[in-house]
Structures are given as C-alpha cells and as structure tokens.
Amino acid sequence: MEALERMIKNFLALDPNKILIKTMSDNPILEKLAIQLVQRKQLDFGLTGDGHFLGEYSAVSVEVFGKEPGPINLDDTGEFRDSFEVVLVDEGFFINADGQKEDTNLFVEFGSDITKLNEDNLSTFIDRLVPLMQKAIIELMFKNV
C-alpha cells in the first residue's frame, strides 16, 4: 500500500512543463530534429514557420551574386543556419539563431517566424516527442516505489 501511495503522490506532482524540459534535456536528438525540420523541411523550400513564402532569388542575385535560382533559403554562407540552437524555457522551447548580418537582420527582413516549426513539422516533432515523454512520466511515477 505504501508503494501505491508514493506512486499516487508522484503522479500528482507531475508538471507537464518540467516533463517536457526533462525529456528535451535527456534526448539531445530532439533538439537536432527540431532544427533539421526547420532547416530542411521549411527553409530549404523558402517557407517560414507561419507558412509564408520568402520569395525567389532575383535575376540580379542569380546573375551577379551567383545565387542558385529558386526560393530564398537563408543559407548563403551557412552562418545563420549554423547559429541555430534550441532554448529550453518554462513553457517549452524555441529555436534561436543569430539573424544579424552585415547590412541587415534576417528576423527584421523576413519575420520572427523563420526559426519556428510550421504545423506539419510541429506534428512530426510531437510524434517523436510523445513516446519519450511517456517514458519520462512512467519513470517519475515509479520513482522511489
């Protein structure tokens, strides 16, 4: 009976935000996944987290500056994408990056949602997150039982 009481006490003490942070901290692959989803499934196609299209490189950008024709993907030098990091906060997490370039700030020019997961990619992320959170919940419930 004592074990059951400890398990119930542990269950009542569960905090979803703390479980999310613990799960993210214990599984660095989740941070990599979030970043890859933004970079490879959104920015590579010129899309922001809110579904806005960044536009196509202009003829001048292609001819004069040697950009590849196609969508603006914010990967000219790799500096911006290399700066991506997941920041854990009490309410969950967000992806931060250094958007300041020599003559512009990418967040000012293209919007603050350029590092945000869109709905489809957030769903993909959640599909990978949920089983790991379930495992963390079970571990916390049976702690000291």
Task: Explain what this protein looks like in three dimensions.
With 145 residues, this protein is mostly helical. The protein has one domain (2-141). Helices cover 50% and strands 7% of the residues. It contains 7 helices and 2 strands. It has helices at residues 2-12, 16-26, 28-41, 59-63, 79-82, 106-110, 119-141; strands spanning 85-89, 92-96. It has a two-stranded antiparallel ribbon. β1 and β2 form a beta hairpin. α2 (16-26) packs across α7 and α3 (28-41) runs antiparallel to α7 (119-141). The longest helix is centred in the C-terminal third of the chain and has 23 residues, at 119-141. The radius of gyration is 20 Å and the shape is elongated. The relative contact order is 0.20. The model has no long low-confidence stretch (mean pLDDT 94).
What's this model, at a glance?
The protein is mostly helical and 145 residues long. Helices cover 50% and strands 7% of the residues. It has one domain (2-141).
Strand content: 5-15%
Number of domains: 1
> What's the overall geometry?
elongated
Uncertain segments: none
Write down the Rg.
Answer: 20 Å
Structural class: mainly alpha
The overall average pLDDT, rounded, is 94
The percent of residues in helical segments reads: 40-55%
Order of helices and strands: HHHHHEEHH
* Record field, number of beta strands: 2
Distance between the termini: 10 Å
Strand order of the largest sheet: 1-2
Largest sheet: 2 strands, antiparallel
What is the tally of helical segments? 7
